[in-house]
Specification:
It is a single chain. By secondary structure, this protein is mainly β. It is 6% helix and 38% strand. The chain has helices at 32-44, 326-336, and strands at 14-16, 50-52, 56-59, 62-66, 72-74, 81-84, 90-97, 102-110, 115-120, 123-133, 145-150, 153-158, 161-163, 168-173, 176-181, 184-186, 190-195, 198-203, 206-208, 212-217, 227-232, 235-237, 258-263, 266-271, 274-276, 281-286, 307-312, 315-317, 345-347, 367-369, 375-377, 388-389. The protein has a 20-stranded parallel sheet that branches. A 12-stranded mixed sheet has the order 4-7-9-11-14-17-20-23-26-29-31-32. The protein is globular, with a radius of gyration of 22 Å.
């Protein structure tokens, strides 16, 4: 695992929030005195301050909030310092941060009524060694997001764990310059999701037992469209959990058995991943049209078509044997029989005809698959009436995307 050393300008004040924690996890009654003192520390925090929470189980019945820039919150380890919100009755998150130059590390957030950690409108955000988990197992009633930076810039999420989120375990949305590395996401609807982000590297992660392993999405009616995401050196396997997302949300359209999914996003490079036994397909490339969201009011300039996609040098094993959804099940049986399987790459078939020249997509906008994967064009625009193996149409290469640089690394 990689580590990051951060420096704080000026002398840092270290506050030990000792005592009042319970090592016995059976005692989860909120300690009102400890809760009050931690809330006060967060309210009174000064730039450059380090708030240390020792090992123990600490129970809360309301959200925690931080609005001061330059603060670090540090525990003794994700399995040693545990912030439990099992008795939460107030607030929408476990911890809500609206600040920059923020670090959260080495602790766990459990059983929040809503999102685990939300960071909104911050720059230079580090989330390291944090576990967010709903401990009673996956359920629609769980909070939507585990780790949830949104509208942020220069974000690092590393060495963390997300389990049981009813939307995405690790989600970064509408942000710029993002690195998500060396994490584990399990038993979420979406394990890791990068949505409407500009410039993201997702690597070294394990995504397993989710509905969908790693998602790179663009959704309409948001402040920015996303592009330029690299997904590489990840282990994405056995993501076959039933979709337990809330009906009507974008993630509720993800088929169980999805490994890596690109939806309506551009400039995406997927390489050196190990994909195995994702029952619908190891990789899915789709447009907004197959999510059902195209039927809603969509901003006029939104581009729903995935373009400039390069898939190369991945390792595939199994997958595609038991796709989710009646249309895909019928398609698989019709083309490959009861005992057959979908190819490793499933493309819904939506292409922007307005950008084509003489019936061909310009080279710079193409979807290219240059490893051993076969490609199935499912013909969703034609109600799956004319699907075909189309691997030769995707045998091309594109220019690799640049590495994301974070100044504090």
């Amino acid at each position: 695992m990689m580590s990051v050393k951060t420096s704080l300008i000026g002398a840092a004040l270290v506050i030990l929030l000792a005592g009042c924690g319970q090592n016995d996890k059976s005692n989860e009654t909120p300690d009102s005195d400890y809760q009050r003192r931690l809330i006060e520390r967060l309210i009174d925090a000064q730039p450059g301050e380090i708030i240390e929470i020792p090992a123990g189980l600490y129970s809360f019945d309301r959200s925690l909030m931080l609005t001061t820039d330059g603060v670090t919150i540090r525990g003794a380890g994700m399995d040693k310092t545990i912030l439990s919100f099992k008795g939460q009755v107030a607030g929408a998150e476990g911890l809500l941060v609206t600040a920059s130059n923020f670090t959260l590390e080495n602790l766990a957030i459990e059983d929040t009524i809503g999102d685990g950690l939300k960071v909104n409108n911050g720059n230079n955000v580090i989330i390291r060694g944090v576990r967010v988990e709903w401990t009673q197992g996956y359920a629609t009633e769980n909070g939507a997001y585990g780790l949830y930076p949104v509208q942020t810039e220069n974000v690092l999420i590393e060495d963390s764990v997300a389990i049981g989120a009813s939307d995405a375990g690790i989600y970064v949305g509408q942000s710029r310059n993002v690195v998500v590395r060396n994490n584990r996401a399990e038993w979420n609807v979406a394990g890791i999701e990068v949505e409407n982000c500009i410039g993201a590297d997702v690597y070294g992660n394990v995504a397993t037992n989710n509905t969908g392993g790693i998602l790179v999405f663009n959704m309409p009616n948001l402040p920015q469209a996303g592009y330029q995401t690299r997904v590489y050196d990840n282990d994405v396997f056995d993501n076959n959990t039933e979709n337990f997302g809330h009906a009507g949300t974008p993630v509720a359209s993800v088929p169980a058995g999805s490994g890596i999914v690109i939806n309506s996003n551009d400039q995406v490079e997927i390489f050196n991943n190990r994909l195995a036994n994702n029952n619908t397909a190891n990789i899915i490339i789709s447009s907004l049209h197959t999510t059902g969201y195209a039927d809603y009011a969509v901003q006029e300039n939104f581009d729903p078509y995935p373009e400039t996609i390069w898939i190369h040098d991945n390792h595939y094993e199994g997958g595609g044997e038991s796709p989710d959804g009646l249309d895909l099940k019928a398609l698989k049986v019709a083309m490959f029989g009861l005992t057959g399987r979908f190819p490793d790459v499933l493309f819904d078939g939506y292409i922007d005809r307005n950008k084509q020249i003489d019936g061909k997509t310009p080279d710079g906008l193409r979807i290219c698959v240059s490893d051993a994967a076969e490609v199935l064009n499912a013909d969703a625009p034609g109600n799956y009436s004319n699907p075909r193996l189309a691997s030769d149409e995707f045998r091309c290469t594109l220019r690799g995307l640049p590495q994301i640089e974070l100044a504090f690394l």
